[in-house]
Amino acid sequence: MVDPRLERLERHLTRLKLVSTRERLDTLLDRGAQNEMSFLDFLDLVIKEEIESKDQKRARMRIQMAKFPLDRRMEDYDFSLQPSLDRRLVAELETGRYVANATNVLLLGPPGVGKTHLAIALARKAIEQGYSARFIHAADLVYQLAAASDHGALDEALRVFARPHVLVVDELGYLPMERRSGHLFFHLVRKRYEKGSLMITSNQPVGSWGEMLGDEVVATAILDRLLHHSHIVTIKGESYRLKEKRRAGVVPAKEVAG
Prior knowledge:
This protein has helices at 4-15, 19-23, 25-34, 39-66, 87-94, 97-100, 115-128, 138-150, 154-162, 179-192, 209-213, 216-228, 240-248, 253-257, and strands spanning 104-108, 133-137, 166-172, 197-202, 230-234. The protein is of the alpha/beta class.
């Protein structure tokens, strides 16, 4: 026969939405009895594990909402292959202080050096610290902003992209922007200025952004806001993909060098 107190406790835990505690109630009770915990220690254990469970669930939801195209983590990044990377700066970014201060992060370097990996890993780390994040390719971003503008909904689209604490804009500059796209991107930068962190990956140095964005004046205005509070991570090195192909013998060394 089930103890009526246990049934009542399970009902109360359900009403309080303490799902993890309800699901693990037998285990928690056994643990408390085996360790002869005081009432205070047992209550501390229950609340601690419930909070940890809720934090983990919230982080999983935020990771889904971030729409990362790949699962990339900082511990998987091979720093030995990119000796030019400032590891102290990366370690500073891992603390999440740039998010708290609404500081922007620019990850610059040639294709294949791991910019997107770092961006996703840092954004994921921010999510684990309680922040929200969103990932989007630059081409998709300007397309969505243009479509919203055409339908008279630009303000709403800008609010959507201004909402997350960290907005990762990947591959800015891989395709040249039309003048209109550059202007739309400026509206987004202005909307997030000193309110949220923009993390941008680009294969173009900032000196080329005028041509890339289709308007020197707009590029200057964008960079003025981006660089005011920013960290710039520059990666100089060979493409990971080419290195892997060379190791596998798919691409001859002389072909890579050329």
